[in-house]
Design brief:
By secondary structure, this protein is an alpha/beta fold. The protein is globular, with a radius of gyration of 21 Å. The longest helix has 23 residues. It contains 12 helices and 14 strands. The protein has an 8-stranded parallel barrel. It has a two-stranded antiparallel sheet with strand order 3-4.
Length: 478
């Protein structure tokens, strides 16, 4: 979300002196994407869509350019192994979940995961939430059939509603305005919490979820978290007694926002130029990403996101080829700017060791500056006998571990992780210390789309990542 304690700088990161492509880019404008095919286009009534977008253009931005540039500098350091990105949140936000307990629990689990990584990994953590805008979801099919009735698929609350009725599934441009309003309310609450000391690193015991001490949390996991908080608090007191001036860099609590930039009418309506900066900024979020279904080189999404100054992520599944990756990098980061582009791999535990090494080596050999991020969720989705989608915790953890192995073997750094997770006590992913089985899934399956790690599973995987980070010294910041 917003940076609470830092100060932005008008300076831009240093560019690589040799751009990776010498060809002048084609003309770009916030609406040039309309000339390209959109794989996830929504059939709106044109006049109503035009009216909604005109209103969005007049509304205040949700984030600021200096926050975006600050995040870009953080991501540039993560590329060098000097920081680590933790990105997580709901698969699909719903308007109904714009409630203070739900938002606070999302922040708490991000804080808890980052705390153990700071303690074990001894490096600053960049916290990026999938919130305040993750209201749209791509679908494999534009329509859905039930009992012989065919209706448009549910594309997230930004577009329509999940109830299977003609009125709920109609794409309504007014939802763009409603989603913007809920994103603004979410951001405002997060600002208030952060400004009021909610995320004070001197008191991490305050970050506990309301059910943290309940019977469902294993004694081992609870004890490990409590040990970590005590160690960090003691280290803070010691460093402050010494007058350590780098302490704030290590422990500053900042939140940034991210969402999949699926709805180009929504994104482009809030894209503008700002005083005293060059270029165009998408001010709906700090860190948008392009999904696996919309990363076509000649598509509307690559066309739009190649023109903005925000850092941009791209999801890469196991079918992506070396040539595709290099061309995507050329399109989205032609100046080879540090912190500008994140490649988010989602290979699946069974394929990551076979597919990822050649991709990493090719990008390294080409001298491209990218942030490698592991999304261990989407490649490990499976169907339970009941028909519910689920993910196995062991597969999720194994993909993270194998991705670390690949980067170590290639002499590169895994700079971050990207999870679908929640601070709620859901039963959507099987396994882990939570002990969830396929028979437990319908006990509290609350996701609007894909299964998420619950708070116990997220914290458990956080400890495993922290230990891996701790086994490698942080590079010199000099």
């Amino acid at each position: 979300m917003l940076v609470v304690k830092g100060r932005g700088s008008a300076s831009r990161p240093m560019l690589n002196p040799t751009p990776v492509t010498q060809h002048p880019p084609a003309r770009w404008a916030p609406d040039s994407w309309k000339s390209k095919p959109d794989a996830q286009a929504i059939a709106y009534e044109p006049q109503a869509l035009e009216g909604a977008c005109a209103r969005l253009k007049e509304l205040p931005p949700l984030v600021t350019s200096w926050e975006i540039e600050r995040l870009k500098r953080h991501l540039a350091e993560a590329q060098q192994g000097k920081r680590f990105l933790v990105q997580g949140g709901d698969c699909a936000e719903t308007l109904a979940d714009c409630r203070s307990p739900v938002i606070a629990n999302k922040l708490k689990i991000l804080l808890q995961m980052s705390l153990v990584m700071i303690q074990e990994g001894k490096r600053p953590v960049v916290r990026v939430g999938r919130f305040a805008g993750q209201y749209a979801k791509p679908r494999s099919k534009p329509t859905e059939s039930r009992d012989g009735v065919e209706l448009p698929s549910y594309f997230g609350d930004l577009v329509n509603r999940p109830e299977f009725s003609e009125s709920a599934r109609r794409a309504d441009p007014e939802n763009l305005i409603v989603a913007y309003s809920h994103a603004a309310m979410t951001l405002n609450f997060i600002r208030s919490l952060s400004g009021g000391g909610f995320a004070d690193v001197h008191h991490p015991e305050f970050w506990e979820l309301s059910f943290f001490r309940g019977a469902g949390m294993s004694d081992t996991l609870r004890a490990e978290y409590e040990r970590t908080t005590k160690q960090l608090a003691a280290a803070l007191r010691f460093m402050e007694a010494l007058g350590e001036n780098t302490l704030e860099e290590l422990t500053r609590v900042e939140f940034f926002t991210s969402h999949e930039g699926l709805s180009l009418p929504y994104e482009s309506a809030q894209t503008r130029q700002v005083p005293r900066r060059e270029g165009w900024y998408d001010l709906t979020t700090h860190f948008p990403w392009i999904g696996e279904r919309t990363r076509a080189l000649d598509g509307a999404h690559v066309e739009f996101f190649r023109g903005i100054e925000n850092p941009v992520g791209v999801k890469l599944g196991p079918t992506v080829g070396v040539d595709q990756i290099l061309r995507l990098i050329d399109a989205l980061n032609p100046q080879n700017e540090p912190g500008k582009l994140a490649l988010v791999t989602r290979m699946g535990a069974r394929r990551v060791s076979d597919v990822l090494p050649s991709l990493v080596e090719a990008v390294k050999k080409a001298g491209r500056l990218v942030l490698w991020v592991c999304d261990p969720m989407h490649g490990n989705t499976q169907a339970a006998p009941s028909g519910l989608k689920t993910r196995d915790f062991d597969d999720i953890l194994r993909e993270v571990e194998l991705t670390f192995d690949v980067h170590e073997g290639c002499g590169t750094s895994l700079g971050g992780v990207h999870f679908e997770m929640t601070g709620e006590d859901v039963t959507e992913c099987i396994g882990g210390a939570a002990g969830i089985t396929v028979d437990d899934l319908d006990r509290h399956y609350a996701s609007a789309c894909d299964p998420r790690l619950n708070y116990r599973q997220a914290l458990e995987v956080g400890f495993r990542i922290a230990r891996r980070l701790g086994s490698h010294a942080i590079p010199s910041r000099g």
